[in-house]
C-alpha cells in the first residue's frame, strides 16, 4: 500500500502513515472530549499500520490533560494538534493521528464516528489504547524535504 504523507499547517511537523489496510477501511473517529472537540480532531488509529512523526527541533509542544497518561503533540509554531502518543512500559510508542490536523489524503469526505470514552476506567482506557493505537516512531530533527 502507498505511504500517506501530511504535515501541520506550517510544515514543521511531518507525518508518514504506512496503512496496514486500505485507507477506506481505516477507522475514523471524532472523540467528544473537550480537547478534541475544540481542535476539530478527526482521528485514526490502527495496530496494523505504522506511523512516523518527524518534528523540527524545538517545535514539538507536548500537552497532558485529564489523567496525564498521554502526550498530545501540538506544533509550537502554528498550533495544530497532530497526534497523541503513549509510551508503553516496554518502550514502544503508540499513537492516534489527527488526520484533519495534518490534512492526510484519503480521509476527506468521510464521516467520522463520534466516540466518548468518559465512562472508561483508567485500566480500560489503557487496554483500549494498547489494542487499537498505531505503532509509531517520533523523531525530532530537521524535516526531510
Please tell me about this protein's structure.
- By secondary structure, this protein is mainly beta.
- The protein has one domain: Metal Binding Protein, Guanine Nucleotide Exchange Factor, Chain A (Beta Complex), CATH 2.170.150.70.
- It has helices spanning 34-39, 122-132; strands at 4-7, 13-18, 29-31, 43-44, 50-55, 60-63, 71-75, 81-87, 93-98, 113-115, 134-140.
- The strands form two sheets. Strands 1, 2, 4, 5, 6, 7, 8, 9 and 11 form a nine-stranded mixed β-sheet that branches.
- A hairpin with a 5-residue loop joins strand 8 and strand 9 (93-98).
- The longest helix is centred in the C-terminal third of the chain and has 11 residues, at 122-132.
- It starts with a strand and ends in a 5-residue tail after the last strand.
Fold topology:
Elements: E1 4-7, E2 13-18, E3 29-31, H1 34-39, E4 43-44, E5 50-55, E6 60-63, E7 71-75, E8 81-87, E9 93-98, E10 113-115, H2 122-132, E11 134-140
Question: What percent of residues are in strands?
Answer: 35-45%
Under the CATH scheme, which class?
A: Mainly Beta
Number of domains in the coordinates?
1
State the shape. Answer: globular
**Secondary structure category:** mainly beta
Task: Tell me about the largest β-sheet.
Answer: 9 strands, mixed
Using only C-alpha atoms, the radius of gyration works out to: 14 Å
Helix content: 10-25%
Low-confidence runs (pLDDT<50, min 5 residues)? none
Task: Report the total helices.
Answer: 2
CATH architecture call: Beta Complex
Global mean pLDDT? 93
**Strand-and-helix sequence, N→C?**
EEEHEEEEEEEHE
CATH fold call: Metal Binding Protein, Guanine Nucleotide Exchange Factor, Chain A
Number of strands: 11
- Termini Cα gap: 22 Å
Amino acid at each position: 500500500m502507498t505511504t500517506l504523507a501530511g504535515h501541520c499547517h506550517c510544515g514543521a511537523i511531518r507525518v508518514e502513515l504506512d496503512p496496514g489496510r486500505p485507507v477506506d477501511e481505516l477507522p475514523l473517529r471524532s472523540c467528544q472530549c473537550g480537547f478534541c472537540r475544540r481542535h476539530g480532531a478527526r482521528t485514526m488509529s490502527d495496530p496494523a499500520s505504522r506511523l512516523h512523526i518527524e518534528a523540527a527541533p524545538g517545535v514539538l509542544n507536548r500537552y497532558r490533560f485529564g489523567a496525564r497518561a498521554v502526550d498530545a503533540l501540538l506544533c509550537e509554531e502554528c498550533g495544530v494538534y497532530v497526534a497523541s502518543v503513549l509510551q508503553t512500559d516496554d518502550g514502544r510508542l503508540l499513537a492516534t493521528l489527527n488526520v484533519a490536523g495534518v490534512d492526510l489524503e484519503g480521509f476527506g469526505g468521510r464521516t467520522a464516528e463520534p466516540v466518548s470514552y468518559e465512562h472508561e476506567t483508567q485500566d480500560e482506557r489503557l487496554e483500549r489504547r494498547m489494542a487499537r493505537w498505531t505503532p509509531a516512531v517520533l523523531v525530532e530533527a530537521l524535516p526531510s524535504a
